[in-house]
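Re: weekly structure request thread

Next one in the queue (293 aa):
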Amino acid sequence: MKLDSRLAGTRLNPHNTLISWRDTTNFAAAIADDNPLYFDDRKKKGLLAPPTFPVAVTWPILSDLGRYIESKEFPKEVLFTQVHYTEHLILHRMIRPGDQLCLTGKIAAILPHRAGTHAVIKLTATDKKKEPVFTEYIGAMLRGVEALGEKGRKRLPIIPDSDPSAAHWTCESRIDPWLPYVYDGCTNIEFPIHTSPKFAEEVGLPGIILQGTATLAIAIRELTNREAGGDPCRIEEIACQFTGMVTPGTAIEICCLGSKDHESHKDIFFNVLNSKNKKAIRSGYLKIKKETP
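Done, posted below.
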């Protein structure tokens, strides 16, 4: 199969959604993030959604991408080869229950890769005032698909360079055997390699694996608590590559590799190791704005 890079720029049909308090609290509960900002609805400003919640907002598009792609020239069969490879979230403000969001998007980039084609979808969420809420760049690896040319690389957001020599700090998080099922049910991010041992084995996996976005959300939970004083409103960007599997019933190790200070923000770099000491997440990046004096 082949994918012509000239299809970069193809637009997606819009998607509208209303965020409920059950959506946001269920997401936080699924990743065991007990921050009161996500649960205590007695606060005057109301509830917040966790920083990684946008991945659940955009899932209805990504899970049915063929229906949203406007172009009739796009070879929809390549979508059956995709796995989640890269993630880059830009948070313009935190999502709150009651938000009415309109999602618009396009195929931002089509890039050749040794494993196939790296295709990046850009999705932008705006509220009813047409103000931006978040922008997400989701990278799919289309395995075995040949990219004809390259287009869009320069339009992708850039992650700052890092040169960490050793981990600044590490922490372990246990992945309960039932976590993929809880995350599936609480986020509506559904795919059978995470909840059906039979299906997982049929596609060559040793068993079910934890959702990559769940691994990322757990890492951001720890990084927010340790590097942002537990204040998710300070999180401005999140990015990473998904490069390894996490098996339920094991533990992951979140490794903060250091930081770089700037006038208005700091850059945090991290990886996540699985139980075999392999990188489940690499090139992790978190942009945290400085506290207001």
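The chain has two domains: 2-155, 169-289. The radius of gyration is 19 Å.
Next request, please.
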